[in-house]
Amino acid sequence: MDQLQSLDSMEGLVLVEETATPRGFARLPKGDLIYAVYPGLLVAATIGLASTWLATRYDAPVMLFALLLGMAFHFLHEDGRCLAGIEFASRTVLRIGVALLGVRITLDQLAGLGTAPVVIVLGGVATTIFLGWAFARALRLHPTFGVLSGGAVAICGASAALAIASVLPKSSRLEADTILTVVLVTAFSTVAMVVYPIFAESFGMSHATAGIFLGGTIHDVAQVVGAGYTISDETGEIATYVKLLRVAMLLPVVFIIAAVVSSTSGPVGEKRVQIPYFLIGFAVLVLVNSTGTIPEDIRTVTADASRWFLVTAIAALGMKTSLRQVFAVGWKPIGLVAVETGWIFVFVVAGIYLLA
Fold it and tell me: Is the C-alpha dihedral spanning 247, 331, 87, 305 positive or negative?
C-alpha cells in the first residue's frame, strides 16, 4: 500500500492527513482542495518570487535559482501539510504553464525549423526504448525496468513511466520498478537542466540549435523549459516545441507496448491511458496565435502568467528532488539510466549536425 501511495504521488495524487476543513474554506467552490494544496503551493510560489528577485539582482537564470532554492527546502516535501500543494504545483501548475506557452509560438516559427526535429525525435524515442530493454537484459535487470526507464528517458520522464506502467502486467516488481524509474529519471533530468545549457553555450550552438538539443535530450518537460529559458526566450520556445513532439509520442508508444504485452500475456488490465490535455491546450493556443487574432496585451499577460507558473513549478520540482534516494538503489539501475541518457544525448547531437 505504501508503494501505491508513493506511485500516486508522482502524478500529484497524494493521500494527506484527513483534517476538518475550516468553515471559511468549506464555503468556497473546491474548498477542500484549496485547503489541502494552499500551504505547499504558497511555499513554491514564495520560492519562485525569491528566485525572480535574485535573478534580477544578480543577472542569473531564474529557473536555476528556483531549482536550487527548492532543493534546499526538500524537507517540506516530507511533511504531510505541504506535500499535496508541492505535488499540485509540480504537476498541475506546470502543465498550465506549458499550455500557456502556446501564445508565444506560431506555425511560421515551427515551419522554419524544418523536418529535422521530427526525424530526430522519432529516431531518439524508438532507439532509446530498445536500448533500455536490451541493456536491462545485459545487466540482468528485469526487462520491465528497461522498458520503463527507456520510455521515461525517451519521452517525458515520470508521466511516461506511469503511462507505460499502466499497460504492463501488474506485480509488486512493477510498482517498485516504476517508483525507482521516476526517482532516477527525475534526478538525471535535474542534472541535465543545469549542465546541458552550459554545454550548448560552450560549443557555440545557435539559439535555435540549442533549443532542438535541449528539447530532444532532457527528460522532463519542466527541466526542458527551465534549461531553454536559461539561454534565451527563443531557445526556450523551440525547446518546448521539440519536447512536446516527444510528449506526443506517448500515446502511440503506450498503445504499441500494450499490444505487444496483450499478444504475449493476455489482457493488460482496464486502466485507461490518460490523454496529455496540456499538450492539446498548447497546440490550440499555437493555432489561435498563428491567426494573429490575440491582442498584444493579452499575449503579454498570458506569457507573463506562464512564466510565473513555470517558476513556481520548478521550485516545487526542486522540493521533490532527493539525491539520497538516488544513491541508495545500487549501481546497475543508475548505470542503465545513465546509458539511456548518454545515448539520447549522442543521438540528438549527431542528428543536429547531420540533419539540421
Answer: negative
How many CA atoms lie within 13 Å of 220's alpha carbon, on the beta-carbon side? 32
Q: What is the DSSP string of 47-101?
A: HHHHHHHHHHHHT--HHHHHHHHHHHTGGGGGSHHHHHHHHHIIIIIHHHHHHHG
**Cβ atoms within 10 Å, residue 268:** 17
Query: Taking residues 131-142, what's their average pLDDT?
Result: 89
Instruction: Mention every residue, 6+ apart, whose C-beta is less than 8 A from residue 47.
Output: 66, 69, 70, 73, 312, 315, 318, 319
Picking from 149, 114, 117, 116, the residue whose alpha carbon sits closest to that of residue 134 is: 149
Output the nine-digit C-alpha cell for 212. Answer: 532542438
pLDDT given at position 16: 46
Within 10 angstroms of residue 46's Cβ, the number of other Cβ atoms is: 14
The answer to whether residue 1 scores a pLDDT higher than 50 is no
CA distances from 92 to 9, 28, 84, 312, 316 (A): 13, 20, 11, 11, 11
Question: Residue 270 class from Cβ within 10 Å (0-12 exposed, 13-18 middle, 19+ buried)?
Answer: exposed
Q: At a CB cut-off of 8 Å and minimum separation 6, what does 165 contact?
A: 7, 148, 174, 175, 177, 178
- Asked whether the beta carbons of 90 and 310 are under 8 A apart, the reply is no
Residue type, 51: S
Q: Are 190 and 219 in contact (CB under 8 A)?
A: no
Mean of the per-residue pLDDT values of the chain: 80
